[in-house]
Specification:
One of its GO terms (cellular component) is plasma membrane. The structure is a single chain. With about 280 residues, the protein is mainly α. It has one domain (about 60-275): Orthogonal Bundle (MetI-like fold). It is about 75% helix and about 0% strand. Helix 1 (about 5-35) crosses helix 13 (about 240-275) and helix 4 (about 65-100) packs across helix 10 (about 195-210). The longest helix has about 35 residues, at about 240-275.
Length: about 280
């Protein structure tokens, strides 16, 4: 066995130290949310860095009240339906752009991708007027539609590039066996697109779950508010229940974290399976 040189050991120690520092910097905010969520407001104001002297569950009672749970469900409905429709629409569009290299499809592709350069909040007033005219203002549909349109350009771009890298021999073999284009899309392209679908799903879910400005403008009824709006309920006219806000942020971030870790695992599995099959 070769002995490690002192410089190699020092380099590895430096890498481990760097990883530990990054872990502390990224993990401390979550830890800060956890132990402050068990503090009352007076205890929090006394020392925000000290762990709670005794567990205070009042913040969680507020967060898990029926009203706040309604906000949570509304955000879940908007985000889940939005992610599903974005993946469906974007994958169909990307399939056409990747498999048919005509001038028309190339022009439409660049037109769709150009939507990434449009700041989403510049469309707020036109979409507000449109939602009133078509009768969807103050409904969850007023959020789902714009959220889908904002995420389609980047989703189409990601999926198109991924579909283009797939071996053409798979498509040709399916055509020889009499497979239709939709069968190729459903049986071949989509099952092999786990990494792209997971990437689009995580990005779309994150943007929809955390969006605030459109929800603030498009939703007026309290029972139809999303989680990002519901957190404002802890803001009073003169005081802010900061521990309750931190608890709401902690609970609200759990679906994002869970969805991210599940999708991350699917990305790794998809890449591994692709390497083994190749």
């Amino acid at each position: 066995m070769k002995k490690e040189h002192a410089s190699d050991k020092l380099f590895k120690a430096g890498i481990y130290l760097f990883c530990i520092v990054v872990l502390i910097l990224t993990g401390f905010p979550l830890l800060f949310l956890v132990f402050n969520s068990f503090k009352s407001l007076p205890e929090y104001m006394m020392n925000i860095w000290q762990p709670p002297k005794k567990l205070f569950l009042g913040n969680y009672k507020l967060v898990f009240a029926p009203t706040f749970l309604r906000y949570f469900i509304n955000s879940l409905i908007v985000s889940a339906s939005g992610v599903t429709l974005v993946i469906l629409v974007s994958s169909l569009m990307a399939f056409v752009f990747a498999k048919f290299s005509f001038k028309v499809t190339k022009g439409i592709f660049f037109l769709v991708v150009a939507g990434m350069m449009i700041p989403i909040h510049t469309t707020l007033i036109p979409i507000y007027s449109l939602s009133i005219n078509i009768g969807v203002y103050d409904t969850l549909f007023a959020l789902i539609g714009p959220y889908i349109s904002f995420n389609i350009p980047v989703s189409v771009f990601i999926m198109t590039q991924f579909f283009k890298e797939m071996p053409k021999e798979l498509d040709e073999a399916a055509k020889i066996d009499g497979g239709s284009l939709f069968l190729i899309y459903r049986k071949i392209v989509m099952p092999l697109s786990g990494p792209a679908v997971s990437t689009v799903g995580v990005y779309t879910f994150l943007t929809m779950w955390n969006e605030f400005v459109y929800a603030l403008v498009m939703i007026d009824t309290r029972s139809k508010k999303t989680l990002s709006l519901g957190i404002r309920d802890f803001y009073g006219f003169q005081t802010i229940n900061i521990p309750a806000v931190l608890t709401a942020i902690l609970v609200g971030s759990l679906p994002v974290l869970i969805f991210y870790f599940v999708a991350q695992d699917k990305v790794i599995n998809g890449l591994t399976q692709g390497a083994l099959k190749g």
